[in-house]
Write a structure and sequence with these properties.
The complex is a heterodimer of chains A (192) and B (41). Chain A has 192 residues and is of the alpha+beta class. In chain A, 36% of the residues lie in helices and 28% in strands. Strand 7 of chain A pairs parallel with strand 1 of chain B, so a sheet runs across the interface.
Chain lengths: 192, 41
């Protein structure tokens, strides 16, 4: 396993591990750069901390041509909004904040560049939303540690996963990126 | 499938960490940071 990089985008750490043919070479580095650019583009569009983002302009009531990515994210978020009985919401007090959807959505898109690397497995974390791929079904799985919400220096579980995604939610220090209120979040964190 | 008892990252041999404190603010003290440092240095 080669740890290809770690950067901060959207106020969260982005980490990548690769293994296989392009782990540690120029192709692997280029795919990492491409993945980061996807995340930076998502930040420019969706950040509620940037006055010039599409979301911020929509919240100010400025007429904007809604880009297809924004329509995409709002459509994805509408479903849990309906099915969670109000636990998840795209708006709080009328202010649009789809951050709870954007993270995983952006990680999935960023992973496209990584998935194009031949004979290479990846494990990408966007602030703890993790997506990974393993080419060989018989290969060892990636091992995802689930942080202890009471003590972030420890983990409470290990999720082995070859191809798929892992996400957790909680309120320990992530309140600013989470749209999920405490009761649901705590249950998710204690039973990953 | 899950290891249910609390375990240290070192003994668990993990590749990535998912959790509530994985924000840039909390990153410096995080296990993910420790993993990244170990792999990039």
């Amino acid at each position: 396993v080669i740890r290809t990089g770690s950067e901060h985008v959207m106020g969260m750490p982005i980490s990548l591990a690769l293994r296989g043919r392009h782990a540690g070479d120029a192709h692997g580095d280029a795919a990492w750069a491409a993945a980061l650019e996807v995340l930076r583009a998502a930040d420019r569009t969706f950040s509620t901390y940037r006055a010039d983002s599409v979301i911020s302009r929509m919240n100010r009531g400025v007429p904007v041509d809604t880009p297809p990515e924004v329509a995409d994210v709002l459509r994805i978020g509408a479903r849990p909004e309906r099915s969670s009985g109000g636990a998840f919401a795209l708006r709080r007090d009328g202010v649009l904040d789809p951050s709870g959807v954007v993270k995983g959505w952006a990680a999935e898109r960023a992973a496209v560049a990584l998935a194009a690397l031949p004979d290479t497995d990846f494990c990408l974390s966007a602030g703890g939303d993790i997506t990974c791929r393993t080419r060989d079904p018989a290969a060892a799985p990636w091992r995802i540690g689930i942080e202890d919400p009471r003590d972030p220096t420890r983990i409470v579980a290990v999720v082995p996963i070859r191809t798929g995604a892992v996400a957790t939610s909680g309120t320990a220090t992530a309140a600013r990126t989470s749209s999920t209120p405490a009761p649901v979040a705590r249950r998710a964190a204690s039973r990953p | 499938v899950l290891v249910q008892e609390t375990i240290s990252a070192q003994s668990a041999d993990i590749d990535m960490v998912s959790g509530a404190t994985v924000t840039s603010d909390g990153y410096v003290q995080s296990l993910q940071s420790a993993l990244d440092q170990a792999g990039l240095s």
